[in-house]
Amino acid sequence: MKLNTNLTVAIHTILCISYFEKDYKVTSDFIAGSTGMNPVIIRKILGKLQAAGMVETKAGVGGSTLSKKAEEITLLDVYKAVSEEKEGERSVFNYHANPNPKCPVGSKIHAVLDQPLDNAQKALEEELKKTTIKDLMGKL
């Protein structure tokens, strides 16, 4: 199982913008230097964060700034902005493709796992809702 790094890279990106935006032009190359990620990946994440109204990015070497105050951006907001799932889907716990419907385990895997996985997803989201970018900035 592989969980992607979009959430942590997006949080790192927002923290870089918040920390450096007053003193530097915070470009994707700048952020890539902090995250250790390819600038192309950073640009994709910036695009998602911009679409969610959290950052503003100017093309070229214009750099990025926060569109909202750090205290208005929760980790849940960031999570939702960079998640690959559609509304109502779990993003952390998904099923493997094609369980065998003729198998006594495969035919019931959804029935036995849906509720515990839904509960875990909700617990994760509730926890992410409690922390803002401002909270994290206070720890840097």
TrEMBL record:
It comes from Treponema ruminis. Pfam families: Rrf2. This is Rrf2 family protein. GO terms for molecular function: DNA-binding transcription factor activity. GO terms for cellular component: cytosol. It comes from the Bacteria.
